[in-house]
């Protein structure tokens, strides 16, 4: 079940450094939300705060709230591991487990979650996840071969299959196409459009054409200056952001005047 995300007054720190300040937004279920902005403005930090992945960096903390369907992800009784199970993540560079087969890459999440699953159920789930990632027909005859032997675009779709195998409610993608060629990029974009029927998807991208192509809503992040925290400058329907933004800074960024 795709879930709605509500973020209120979110500040993100690394030690004493405030990396992101004052984010307020709501992310609708079964949609794609794109986050754009210049390098170093806090997009990826914000994305990682949505499933508490930024906490793997020592000294990271947040103030404010991230609420998914009524549950505060930063509540004192919430286990970050459960959050990451609920909210899957796909990274910039394809990162299949190099020593594992294609099959075991997809099954890894379930095994890590210590869910007892019969061989036939696992077979079904691996097939369903690979089909969900539009990869099944390309790999079904070589499931026992290493995932690292696939092309870059296939590896990224394998990582998406691994993420959706645990049936998360939200899928975060941190520049999932930046290391891919145009044809592989198109395949991943087509896949995103299909997956939004089941998941809430949030994507960070430097490719503004990609944001315009795949997302319903776009958030523009920016910095006021070096050493300043990143801020969400504008958050609107994608069509409005790219045709008639409310903020001059958004227009300047999209038209290539800076960034």
Automatic annotation (TrEMBL):
Keywords: ATP-binding, Nucleotide-binding, Translocase, Transport. One of its GO terms (molecular function) is ATP hydrolysis activity. SMART domains: AAA (SM00382). It comes from the Bacteria. The keyword Membrane does not apply. InterPro entries: AAA+_ATPase, ABC_transporter-like_ATP-bd, ABC_transporter-like_CS, P-loop_NTPase, PstB-like. SUPFAM superfamilies: P-loop containing nucleoside triphosphate hydrolases. One of its GO terms (biological process) is phosphate ion transmembrane transport. Residues 5-248 form the ABC transporter domain. GO terms for cellular component: membrane. This is ABC transporter domain-containing protein. It comes from Modestobacter caceresii.
């Amino acid at each position: 079940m795709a879930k709605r995300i509500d973020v209120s007054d979110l500040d993100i720190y690394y030690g004493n450094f405030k990396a992101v300040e004052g984010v307020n937004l709501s992310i609708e279920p079964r949609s794609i939300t794109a986050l754009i902005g210049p390098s170093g403005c806090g997009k990826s930090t914000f994305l990682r705060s949505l499933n508490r992945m930024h906490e793997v960096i020592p000294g990271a903390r947040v103030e404010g709230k991230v609420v998914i369907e009524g549950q505060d992800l930063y509540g004192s009784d919430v286990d970050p591991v459960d959050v990451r199970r609920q909210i899957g993540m796909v990274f910039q560079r394809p990162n299949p487990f190099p020593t594992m087969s294609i099959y075991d890459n997809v099954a890894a999440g379930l095994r890590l979650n210590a869910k007892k699953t019969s061989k036939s159920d696992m077979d079904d789930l691996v097939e369903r996840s690979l089909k969900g990632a539009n990869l099944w027909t390309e790999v079904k005859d070589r499931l026992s071969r290493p995932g690292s032997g696939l092309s870059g675009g296939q590896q990224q779709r394998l990582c998406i299959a691994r993420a959706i195998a645990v049936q998360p409610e939200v899928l975060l993608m941190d520049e999932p196409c930046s290391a891919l060629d145009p044809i592989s990029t198109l395949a991943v974009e087509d896949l995103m459009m299909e997956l939004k029927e089941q998941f809430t998807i949030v994507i960070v991208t430097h490719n503004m054409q990609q944001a315009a192509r795949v997302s319903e809503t776009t958030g523009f992040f920016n910095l006021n200056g070096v050493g300043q925290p990143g801020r969400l400058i504008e958050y609107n329907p994608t069509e409005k952001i790219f045709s008639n933004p409310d903020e001059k800074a958004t227009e300047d960024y999209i038209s290539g005047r800076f960034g």
